[in-house]
Design brief:
The complex is a heterodimer.
Chain A (H helix, E strand, L loop, with lengths): L1 H12 L10 H22 L2 E2 L1 H4 L1 E5 L8 H12 L3 E5 L5 E6 L6 H12 L7 E5 L1 H29 L2 H25 L2 E2 L1 H28 L11 H11 L1 H25 L4 H33 L2 H20 L2 H5 L9 H24 L7
Helix pairs in contact in A: 2-7, 2-11, 4-5, 6-7, 6-8, 7-8, 7-11, 8-9, 8-11, 9-11, 10-11
Chain B lengths: L2 H26 L1 H4 L2 H22 L8 H4 L1 E10 L9 H17 L6 E5 L3 E7 L4 H9 L4 E11 L8 H11 L2 H12 L6 H9 L2 E3 L6 H25 L2 H9 L5 H6 L10 E6 L5 E6 L4 E2 L3 E9 L5 E8 L1 H16 L7 E5 L2 E4 L2 E2 L7 E8 L1 H15 L2 E11 L1 H30 L2 H27 L5 H30 L4 H33 L3 H31 L3 H4 L9 H4 L5 H5 L14
Parallel strand pairs in B: 5-13, 6-12
Antiparallel strand pairs in B: 1-3, 1-15, 2-3, 4-7, 4-8, 4-11, 5-14, 6-7, 9-10, 10-14, 11-12
Helix pairs in contact in B: 3-16, 3-19, 5-14, 7-9, 8-10, 15-16, 15-17, 16-17, 16-19, 17-18, 17-19, 18-19
Classes of the chains: A alpha+beta, B alpha+beta.
């Protein structure tokens, strides 16, 4: 803890920090590159849609089925007259996928299969999907996505401002594109579980972004009343000050998902758990990345175009030049860690401050001087 | 190091001083921090009450969905006839659900569940241990609604003879004034058998032309009574193939299996036997003539409260042009007959749902069935009548059969995954937050308990069933819930880094953490709500859990985590910043507050040399 904890402290005091905003062009570039790769992958390879979207049947035999994969494949193809894909799962059961059959015929196929493979028909799990069902799920998902995006942009525009809403929107699209692109490139199968995972990413990615924005909003409340920082600098500091939280949140969110992925992929073979957790895993990682590297720098970019902020930047730079001329720049730089936005509240704490003094002073003295900079 | 001793004596003094200092602050945002004990008590009472409710209701575990418990789940999609796309609406879908429920449960399936999903899907869940194929056949076919003339009827079961006479009188008494005289005549001219009168009782319901007055019907009714007796009798005798008669004699409608088989596979153009339940809840059996009017001939049927004639709840029917003609023909014929052959049976899926008698030919293209209906009965009958007219058919969109073995495996896998996830989170929190993590764990525990209990309770109340995506949602929610604590804890630590001691830090961090938690939870909830409303199927179960846990997260953070932290901040272990408390100012890199007071007077300088 202490390492991350003291890193948190140093981030909080502004002793260390990464120039997320300053180096934004690099990250924009990387993101654009990834996005283009994802789009190209999507265009060239396309998505591997599961049975649920094409229509067809998936039969799962009970555990420890004796029949071999190739034999089951033959049997299934003979029974259905369509191509069949057979996988052996971790627990020895067979997963037989037959695409393009009608739901009516499935019963006959199931019976034939049970005869050929010598398994009780009641022991075979079957999932039969008409071709339009998958379409409907997908359409509804798109519809949900659209409605959600509109509502969230409206909400963010009200709760924060339109620039943040726009940046969050871009970050979201970015996450989804990357996730979908990875699915296309790696060739994972897309199932309703994937769609669920993808839709959850929406909420989660925004959740992350919103926390950073919240800190940004707080710290820039009275930005025009001071001349010490430009908007971009404060934005950078809010990313840094919430960095520990972002890392923690992402880790804590990823851990259960990793548990799901491990159990879903390792123990159960394929299935809903696996599908959901896989897309979640990819999406969460992308979401954490985008809220730090894309969303907030984008807000800073948009914000710096505002005439007010331009004027502020000019004032800040002028003041700095003046201060530099006086030559006391180095010393005061020490103090830069304090968030500007907290200043109005300081008046309240002043009451507490002096009371605290005796103890605090000793505390201060007791500190090894090295830690005090 | 000189630090620890100095701290030791400093601990108590500031502690007391804060009591005074904190007092005015308390007044400022009293709502946030006052009486932590009260909110803790509140949430504990809520948990105890909910748990008590859970045990009282006898549903100690969440209801499991088909994919975890095993069974068959069928998704049907409504398909409208061309040009009638508007037919897919809530009323029609509800009617269809009602009909399907009748059918599936008529199979003797226990706890089969039929519900609409989205705007054009119906989901039928049939638990394990049922013949899934038979159920599928039943659900997949469209309902058959026919109007058939009644040839004979009697109460089915042990003692058919005892009931007729008392019921005859009762029917006469509870009949509306308008129809009283009509019913009187058939029963008076009673000659054929004892049973007919029994049937007429159950009805007590007359079909009348809605617009016509009462005077004429009585005349026609009595006039026809004598004349018709012989023809109908002969008719039934001539084409009463002994087989039908034998089936009729044998039929015991109180037996569920026999009832389901009655009239199976009979064409509409043939005579058949059928069962039905009369107004007294007795089962009655019928021999019915060939279908005279099709369900599709009914244009619309509605339950109407008739205030004009004082008939109470009635069902009005509108026929299509073709249907109106057929209906006029059959009523014309029936009206000449005597009871019970002046009745026609409304047969839905081979079960008589109503058997009103006719007193005159109804030619207006609409009709009214009156009698001592309750509002519910009238509406249900109207629904069934309209179902025949629903321009909908249903197509199987997906059928999932899960064996109980696989269901169990999936449930176990889900639980193991959840346990692993939870354990990983706990370990991480423990390593990172140390003592503080116990507050987080307690909160997670409260959250988990609430989720479990509420899920259990939602099973019987709103039919919530825990399926695999819902389990996933719950696992993912661990992260969301834990994040709220992280936001708050990080805020508290930031305050400590500013040089505050723990108690003011806890209070000062709260309003800001609260806002962040609310804003981000709102976004998360919004996502869940939109998904729940818009999507269908598995996505919906997932969204529901996610939404539920998000709401619970807010509840737990507000009523449990915050008050608990406030209380804990008073404990020495935390307040003194013990090394293992996770709030050690030193390892957090606290700044002496002295510097803060100096800062405002300092001149501003250039920024961010650290970036260089």
């Amino acid at each position: 803890m202490s390492k991350l904890g003291s890193l948190g402290a140093r981030l909080h005091h502004g002793e260390v920090g990464y120039g997320f905003v300053k180096n934004r062009k690099i990250w924009y570039g990387i993101s654009i590159l990834i996005t283009i790769t994802a789009i190209v992958g999507l265009a060239v390879r396309g998505l591997h849609m599961g049975i649920e979207f094409q229509g067809g049947a998936v039969f799962t035999t009970p555990k420890n089925t004796n029949a071999s994969v190739s034999r089951a494949e033959e049997d299934a193809e003979r029974a259905s007259g369509h191509d069949a894909i057979v996988q052996k799962l971790g627990d020895g059961s067979l997963r037989i996928q037959i695409s393009g059959i009608d739901t009516d015929k499935s019963d006959q196929i199931k019976e034939k299969l049970s005869r050929d493979l010598k398994i009780d028909a009641e022991q075979i799990n079957a999932e039969l999907v008409g071709p339009s069902w998958g379409d409907q799920i997908a359409n509804k998902a798109w519809q949900g996505l659209g409605i959600f995006l509109v509502l969230v942009v409206i909400y963010l525009a009200i709760a924060f401002e339109w620039r943040m809403a726009l940046a969050a929107f871009v970050a979201l699209i970015h996450d989804i594109t990357i996730t979908v692109g990875i699915y296309a490139l790696v060739g994972f199968e897309v199932t309703p579980g994937t769609v669920i995972g993808l839709l959850t990413i929406l909420g989660y990615s925004l959740y992350d972004t919103v926390v950073v924005f919240d800190s940004l909003k707080e710290q820039t409340r009275d930005i025009t009343k001071q001349t010490r920082w430009t908007y971009a600098e404060i934005a950078n500091r809010s990313i840094n000050s919430t960095l520990v939280r972002s890392i923690n949140t992402t880790v804590v969110a990823l851990l259960p998902v990793a548990g799901l992925l491990f159990i879903g992929g390792g123990v159960l073979g394929a299935g809903m758990l696996n599908d959901i957790s896989l897309s979640l895993f990819v999406g969460l990682a992308a979401g954490a990345y985008s809220s730090i590297f894309i969303a907030t720098p984008l807000v800073a970019d948009l914000k710096e175009r505002e005439p007010q902020m331009k004027a502020l930047k000019k004032r800040v730079l002028a003041k700095r030049a003046q201060a530099a001329a006086k030559g006391d720049s180095l010393e005061s730089a020490d103090e830069t860690g304090e968030a500007h936005g907290e200043e109005p509240e300081d008046t309240a704490t002043v009451v507490v401050g002096p009371r605290n003094q005796p103890a605090s002073r000793t505390r201060g003295r007791g500190r090894p001087s090295g830690k005090r900079r | 190091m000189s630090w620890p001793p100095v701290r030791q004596d400093g601990v108590r003094r500031p502690e007391r001083e804060y009591e005074k200092v904190a007092a005015p602050k308390k007044g400022r945002n009293a709502s946030a921090q006052s009486k932590p004990g009260r909110s803790l008590a509140l949430i504990l009472i809520a948990i105890v009450a909910l748990t008590g409710g859970m045990f009282a209701s006898g549903h100690n575990t969440p209801r499991l969905g088909i994919d975890l418990a095993g069974g068959t789940s069928i998704t049907l999609r409504a398909v409208a006839e061309p040009g009638q796309e508007s037919a897919i609406n809530k009323t029609n879908m509800d009617t269809a659900v009602e009909i399907m429920e009748r059918r599936v449960n008529g199979l003797g399936v226990s706890e089969a569940e039929v519900q609409t999903q989205g705007d054009k899907n119906i989901i039928v869940n049939i638990p394990k241990g049922t013949n899934s194929r038979e159920a599928r056949d039943q659900v997949g076919t469209t309902a058959k609604l026919y109007f058939r003339p009644v040839l004979t009827t009697e109460i089915s079961g042990a003692d058919a003879t005892a009931s007729p006479s008392p019921s005859a009188s009762s029917s006469a008494s509870d009949k509306a004034s308008g129809s009283a005289d009509e019913s009187a005549s058939p029963s008076a001219s009673e000659s054929a058998s004892a049973s007919p009168s029994a049937s007429s009782t159950s009805q007590g319901r007359a079909v009348t032309d809605a617009l016509k007055a009462d005077a004429t019907p009585s005349a026609t009714g009595s006039a026809s009574a004598s004349a018709s007796a012989s023809p109908s009798a002969s008719a039934s005798a001539s084409d009463a193939d002994s087989k039908l008669q034998a089936a009729y004699t044998k039929l015991d409608c109180t037996d569920k299996a026999a009832r389901a088989k009655a009239g199976e596979g009979v064409k509409p153009s043939e005579s058949t036997v059928a069962c039905g339940q009369n107004a007294q809840g007795q089962w009655q059996k019928y021999i019915l003539g060939p279908a005279a009017v099709d369900g599709t001939d009914v244009d619309d049927a509605q339950a109407v409260f008739n205030t004009q004639t004082g008939a109470g709840w009635t069902v009005t029917m509108d026929f299509t042009d073709g249907g109106a003609k057929k209906f006029a023909d059959i009523t014309g014929k029936l009206a000449k007959n005597q009871s019970p052959q002046n009745q026609f049976a409304i047969v839905l899926d081979n079960e008589v749902v109503s058997d009103p008698y006719v007193s005159q030919a109804l030619t207006g293209g609409n009709a009214e069935i009156s009698g001592s209906f309750t509002q519910e009965e009238a509406q249900s009958l109207a629904n069934m009548l309209s179902y025949g007219a629903l321009p909908l058919s249903f197509k199987e969109d997906s059928v999932t059969t899960v064996t109980p073995a696989l269901g169990g495996d999936q449930l176990r896998a889900g639980l193991i995954a959840g346990a692993i996830g939870l354990a990983l989170v706990v370990v991480y929190l423990l390593v990172y937050y140390r003592g503080l993590s116990f507050i987080a764990m307690a909160s997670l525990l409260v959250s988990a308990a609430l989720t479990y209990v509420i899920m259990s309770l939602l099973g019987p109340t709103i039919g919530f069933a825990l399926n695999l995506p819902a389990v996933c949602g719950a696992i993912v929610a661990i992260g969301i819930t834990a994040d709220s604590f992280i936001v708050y804890f990080e805020r508290v630590r930031d305050e400590i880094r500013e040089g505050r001691s723990l108690r003011p830090a806890v209070e000062r961090a709260w309003p800001r953490a609260r806002r962040t938690i609310l804003v981000s939870d709102f976004v998360s909830f919004l996502a869940a709500a939109v998904l729940f409303i818009v999507t269908v199927g598995k996505v919906q179960g997932f969204a529901f859990t996610l939404g539920l846990t998000t709401v619970l997260d807010v509840v737990v953070v507000f009523l449990f985590t915050k008050p608990l932290l406030t209380l804990m901040a008073r404990r020495k272990f935390f307040a003194s910043g013990h090394k293992w408390s996770g709030l050690d100012p030193r390892s957090l890199g606290a700044k002496p507050p002295l510097r803060r007071t100096r800062r405002p007077s300092r001149p501003a300088g250039p920024v961010d040399p650290k970036e260089a």
